[in-house]
Amino acid sequence: MACGTTQVARGLTTWFCCGNAFGPCGAAGHGACGTCNSGSHQCAWPNISSACLGVTNPGRCGLNLGRFGCGHRFFIENLCNTRCVAVTIADCGPATDQFCGERVCCGSTCGTNRVMDLTPSAFSSIGSLSAGILPCRVAN
Amino acid sequence: MAAWDLPPDVVTVVVARAKRSAVYRRARPQLASACPLDVWVADGLGFVQFELDDTRRQPAVPGWLVLAVRLGDGAPVAAKILEPGPDVATMSVSDALVE
Amino acid sequence: MDTMNRRRFLAATALGGAGVVSAAGLGMLSTATDAEAADLDLAGQLDPNFLEGRVVSVDASSLIVLTPDLVMRRTLVTNGTQVWKVRDTTLEAVRADDHLYARGLPMQDGTFAADSIWINIVNLHAEVVGVDASTLRFNHHGEAWTGHLQPDTVARYSMRAPSRDLSGVTTGQHVQVVGAWRPGTNEVDVSTVFA
């Protein structure tokens, strides 16, 4: 089964917590869209608004990421194992410009630059949370 | 604060009416925050859900306060405290409307 | 859909009588069908195959977990369950007041059969303040944190092989820290540093 149809970006995904959350996540809130929960299949995207783009600044890494707003559905593929998850945008992120050029590989499959941030439930459906960062493909 | 899929003026009215109630004033010291977890409208009633601060409760049990107010006159019609139940997959419900 | 279930449950409970009620109305009891199709149908939804919460008690083969929905869930742990707490470990490493994420299968009786459990796991964007042989001090969202380096802590650099050598982590650098949070503190036991 294909993971989405049209590629939007290829790079790295991390994971983050939001909503009713413990420890360092206790003050995270429900994200820029007000709907984010760690247990839901959701994500953060670097260009949900002009204000968001000003914070994540993927252009500094040479990335031109299209604008997609709260609630938009993406398909995220873990390039290490081809597992796929559908998510909706619930927050602004990741901090792309703080990690320009970052490269993570699994064998010969690599991703460069952070383009996606998933909730724990979404990330764990395609990989182990302890992996932290994975090469990924983002598609509509 | 979340948008709760309601027009802002509706949220304001529902939350304001809930907070004017005696049950809210009694419960306020036990709340984790004056900002509701959720606000919605159903069947002519406004519902407001607050989180209880388990560090300020004896015993220290997490919980919610759910208030229902009439949209017309703002009168509270129900208020319940919800806490983890004695058994797995259950919740304990106690009435907060009466003092 | 899950917000609607939750609101219906809470409204009915608020308007009903006092006592003990089943929390099934919170929509958490469901069975997984085809895993791949189910994942694609869950965009934006709570995943019934995912559990998060605080450990209330531990016994030989299960945990009682208090979820953010204030529901106690018995989480079954078998020899096939992968348990992570700083590193791959066993149920014996889990303590009351630990927090967890888990992935598995919700059973009809309300229990949760876990395939994977991550205890206190955090994934923090960190600005390095200092690093020495045993600690990585960093700021996370403006707060000061201490990362306790373990004998098996690994640094993963972009263009180098993973190693135990953290000399490539420098003050002022932005890194990602994967580790196990120590409950009630601003401290983590560090598993991996992405630098």
Rg of chain B (CA only): 13 Å
Our estimate of the beta-strand percent of chain B is 35-45%
Query: How many structural units, i.e. domains of chain B?
Result: 1
| Count of distinct strands of chain C | 13
N-to-C terminal Cα separation of chain B, in Å?
30 Å
Mean pLDDT of chain C: 89
Strand order of the largest sheet of chain C: 2-3-4-8-7
Low-confidence stretches of chain C: 29-37
Largest sheet of chain C: 5 strands, mixed, barrel
The number of domains of chain C = 3
The CATH topology of the largest domain in chain C is given as: OB fold (Dihydrolipoamide Acetyltransferase, E2P)
Describe what this molecule looks like in 3D.
The complex is a heterotrimer of chains A (140), B (99) and C (195). Chain A has one domain (7-139): RlpA-like domain (Barwin-like endoglucanases). Chain A contains two helices and eight strands, in the order E-E-H-E-E-E-E-E-H-E. Chain A has helices at residues 50-56, 120-124, and strands at residues 7-15, 42-45, 73-78, 84-92, 103-106, 109-112, 114-118, 134-139. In chain A, the strands form two sheets. A six-stranded mixed barrel of chain A has the order 1-7-2-4-3-8. Chain A is globular. In chain A, 61% of the residues are buried. By secondary structure, chain B is of the alpha+beta class. A five-stranded antiparallel β-sheet of chain B has the order 1-2-3-4-5. Chain B has one domain. In chain B, 18% of the residues lie in helices and 36% in strands. In chain B, a hairpin with a 5-residue loop joins strand 4 and strand 5. The longest helix of chain B has 12 residues, at 8-19. Chain C has three domains: 1-28; 49-119, OB fold (Dihydrolipoamide Acetyltransferase, E2P) (Beta Barrel), CATH 2.40.50.140; 121-194, Beta Barrel (OB fold (Dihydrolipoamide Acetyltransferase, E2P)). Helices cover 11% and strands 48% of the residues of chain C. Chain C has two helices and 13 strands. In chain C, the strands form two sheets. Chain C has a five-stranded mixed β-barrel. In chain C, strands 9-10-11-13-12 form a five-stranded mixed β-barrel. The longest helix of chain C has 14 residues, at 2-15. The radius of gyration of chain C is 20 Å and the shape is elongated. The model of chain C is unreliable at 29-37 (pLDDT under 50). Chains in contact: A-B, A-C, B-C. Strand 5 (90-95) of chain B pairs antiparallel with strand 1 (19-22) of chain C.
